[in-house]
């Protein structure tokens, strides 16, 4: 039977550790503050932002909320970011994505001071990760490393196959698994004979954005499977990029959806906010 990797419990442990740190910082007179910027009313983004603010409250991080209308001009958003960059009482800045179509996401991300880039999306943060320098790491991949470490899953010398090459998950995931001494392969929509590649994986990380795409034929016996996907199935139940019922019996360990990778993203955002204190000092 596969071990079910409990992201809910692991994320709770991380938030509890951070809560103690934040309380200790407060005793020394230091407050951790995250500015959360939401443009428009995308329903999924509204839920994510609400959950991020709730997590801040739990951990003891002060959150400042900036909710701007859909029709906000790009210059206005850039001005808000410049103001937040300049504020000494703001340690982290998060601009929820996606942005409305009339805005250039790359330009907006680049406007955030890398010292406050708690999402780890700024080119400087990505560059630092790629050459092993300290900096903020994108929250979902950082959360997956924590899931593996805290489940005592060995990464050194293991074959890790990542399905998906996005800037937010696939690429930083590959860099992090390299840092963890895995032998890493990134696959994508143009990969020829994908199952023959994924079947090589000791650790298979799936961030492809296609509902229940990975079935048992893609998975080696005894593999560890990490599912980044989040969808609704035909019964409106949450499901991932992995066909869990089909794949789980073959695995040594697997993340469920929900309760696997999802809760880790917010826990690692909280972690980055607390780290921002040291980076800003
Ligand atoms: N939209 C979906 N995921 C994320 C995330 O991790 N950070 C931000 N800023 N926007 C997102």
C-alpha end-to-end distance = 47 Å
Query: Which sheet architecture does the biggest sheet show?
Result: 6 strands, parallel
Number of strands: 11
Number of helices, counting only DSSP H or I runs of 4 residues or more = 10
Binned, the helix content reads 40-55%
Strand order of the largest sheet: 1-11-8-7-5-6
Would you tell me the structural class of the helices and strands?
A: alpha/beta
Question: Would you tell me the overall average pLDDT?
Answer: 97
What's the gyration radius in Å?
19 Å
Small molecules bound in the structure, each named once: guanine
Give the SSE order as H and E letters.
EHEHEHEHHHEHEHEEEEHEH
Shape estimate: globular
Chain oligomer state: single chain
Low-confidence stretches: none
How much of the sequence lies in strands comes to 15-25%
Fold and architecture overview:
This protein is of the alpha/beta class and 281 residues long. Helices cover 41% and strands 16% of the residues. It has a six-stranded parallel sheet. Strands 3-2-4 form a three-stranded parallel sheet, with helices on both faces. Helix 1 (7-27) packs parallel to helix 10, helix 6 (139-150) crosses helix 7 and helix 6 (139-150) packs across helix 10 (262-280). It binds guanine. Guanine is lined by residues 94-97, 119, 139, 265.
Summary keywords:
six-stranded parallel sheet, 10 helices, 281 residues, globular, three-stranded parallel sheet, binds guanine, alpha/beta, 16% strand
């Amino acid at each position: 039977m596969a071990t079910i990797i409990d992201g809910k419990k692991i994320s709770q442990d991380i938030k509890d550790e951070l809560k103690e740190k934040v309380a200790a910082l407060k005793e020394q007179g230091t407050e951790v503050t995250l500015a959360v910027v939401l443009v428009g009313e995308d329903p999924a983004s509204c839920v994510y932002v609400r959950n991020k603010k709730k997590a801040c409250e739990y951990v003891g991080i002060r959150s400042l909320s900036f909710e701007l209308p859909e029709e906000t001009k790009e210059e206005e958003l850039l001005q808000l970011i410049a103001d937040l960059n300049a504020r000494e009482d703001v340690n982290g800045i998060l601009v929820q994505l996606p942005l409305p179509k009339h805005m250039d996401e790359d330009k907006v991300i680049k406007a955030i001071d890398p010292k406050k880039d708690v999402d780890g999306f700024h080119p400087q943060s990505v560059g630092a990760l790629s050459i092993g320098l300290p900096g903020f790491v994108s929250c979902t991949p950082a959360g997956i490393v924590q899931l593996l470490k805290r489940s005592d899953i060995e990464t050194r010398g293991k074959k890790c196959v990542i399905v998906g090459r996005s800037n937010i998950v696939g690429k930083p995931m590959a860099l992090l698994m390299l840092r963890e001494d895995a032998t890493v392969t990134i696959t994508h929509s143009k990969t020829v004979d994908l199952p023959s590649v994924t079947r090589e994986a000791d650790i298979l990380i799936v961030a492809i954005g296609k509902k229940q795409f990975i079935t048992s034929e893609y998975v080696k016996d005894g593999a560890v499977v990490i599912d980044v996907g989040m969808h609704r199935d035909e019964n409106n139940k949450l499901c991932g990029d992995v066909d869990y019922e089909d794949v789980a019996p073959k695995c040594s360990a697997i993340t469920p959806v929900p309760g696997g990778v999802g809760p880790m993203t917010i826990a690692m955002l909280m972690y980055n906010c607390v780290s921002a204190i040291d980076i800003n000092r």
